[in-house]
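1st attempt posting a full record on here, be nice pls
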Amino acid sequence: MHNSIALIRKDFMLTRKFALLLIPYFVLMLYSNAQAYTVFSLLPALLLLINACTIDMQHNNQKFLATLPVPRQRLIQAKYLTIIPLSLFSLLCTLLMYYAAVTMGKLDEPLRWRELGLITAVIPLLAAFYLPLYYWLGQKGMQFVNFIFMMAIMLCFTTFGSLNKEFPALAQWVQDGKTDSMLLYVIGGLAYLIIIYASCLISTRIYMSKDI
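the predicted structure (as tokens):
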């Protein structure tokens, strides 16, 4: 557990300078489109994850980490666990932006906490698709992976606007918390966990088979 915390702290230290760039990002979003504050919580955590992975690759940190007396499985687990504090950090920044918008009179509505929670939960899901590609393609394919992943994030920005039409039951739950059937959400929750777990297994197998 101590090793995992140290590895998570390492990723935060790698991205601490990049995190400062999020200040003008949230300020810009606050003034330009505060109404869409829930969607803006998606980008910061993913950008920080990409930044940490890119720095790891550029500085060949994986080779150094492989020499530590830490199982490779633990290295992968720590990378996946890093997604949790990154998501919480992004959520906290979004909440601060919301309350700043309310204070400045740019927003006059209750916090859309269900929608915000749903979008925050999407962050680990997107990371679950990114990390296996990151470990598989390595340094030569990082630029390609980052480009494709950023396009996927932009697509998510546009997709969230059409969720009300495509998934009326989900839109109803986001709006009033009511649902016709819990079975669909139980199946969705299980699928969510299976995808992340399968992603972790795939990343572990790729990383274990690599000659670093």
